Amino acid sequence: MNTILQKYNRRADAIRSLLCVGLDSEFSRIPEQFKSSDYPQYEFNKWIIEQTHEYAAAYKPNMAFYEACGEQGLTALAFTMQYLRDEYPEIVTICDAKRADIGNTNRGYVESIFDKFGFDSITLHPYLGKEALAPFLERSDKACIILCRTSNAGAGEFQDLETNGKPLWQIVAERVSQEWDKNGNCMLVVGATYPDEMRRIRAVAPQTTFLVPGVGAQGGDVAAVVSAGLDTEGRGLMISSSRDIIFSDDPAASARGVRDAINAAKEGVHVRR
Questions:
Q1: Cα gap 27→250, rounded to integer Å
Q2: 130 catalytic, yes or no?
Q3: For domain 3-272, is the CATH number 3.20.20.70?
Q4: Where is the Orotidine 5'-phosphate decarboxylase domain (predicted)?
Q5: In angstroms, rounded to a whole number, what is the distance separating the alpha carbons of residues 138 and 95?
Q6: Helices 70-87 and 40-52 sit at what angle, rounded to 10 degrees?
Q7: Residue 252, burial from CB neighbour count under 10 angstroms (0-12, 13-18, 19+)
Q8: Which residues fall within 8 angstroms of residue 269, CB to CB, at 6 or more apart?
Q9: Catalytic choice (98, 116, 142, 182)
Q10: What does the radius of gyration of the chain's CA atoms come to, in whole angstroms?
Q11: Which pLDDT tens digit goes with each residue over 79-101?
Q12: Which helix (H) or strand (E) holds 124?
């Protein structure tokens, strides 16, 4: 098994949690007490991490919110990553960037995301194909999280298009899990808002771990996700919650609540099996 997936499973088992906390630190929503610092997003992230780390198996900064703040934001992200490596190296880090381009451009992204920022994994578009994504896929020391069935309301515009009787999202799931995953370092993005599709994706990709956005603000149901997506080992899910945790009045309680809801749903699945 890929070292990053091993790292995630160790962490998930150690703290009994499949929770991924999204560090979507939109500047306008950061509490005022952090905005007087040189790097407000970093100070906010550090506080969120201290509040939530005991419940988090992964952290997922979304690049958009740091890029929007220019040099200050990218420095804040670099500081956040260094803080996580220094203080919580056992927690998996995900760069939510949804990158995809031709091969030589992707080599630049690989150097930036994996080597400069030090992320464990990155979200990627499959549209350009395996050949273009080779610089990511070849990094057996990292993990590639491929968009499959996304959580947004308009996801079906392309993802539901059929080829040879199969929706595109199913073809992506099959291709990634059966052909692209030669180094055991591929995962899939499968939205919480489409549990029926998630169940079908689990059937064709039984050993693949899913990053699951859409719980909380987007309306995804934790119990439905766990029922549809849990693998036979009681893992296979990184269930992401962002705004409902980091912008709540009590991030620790919010993270604990999602963790507890996931574990309660897991118990229900275990009883039914």
A1: 19
A2: no
A3: yes
A4: 18-258
A5: 17
A6: 30
A7: middle
A8: 226, 227, 230
A9: 98
A10: 18
A11: 999 999 999 999 999 999 999 99
A12: strand 121-124
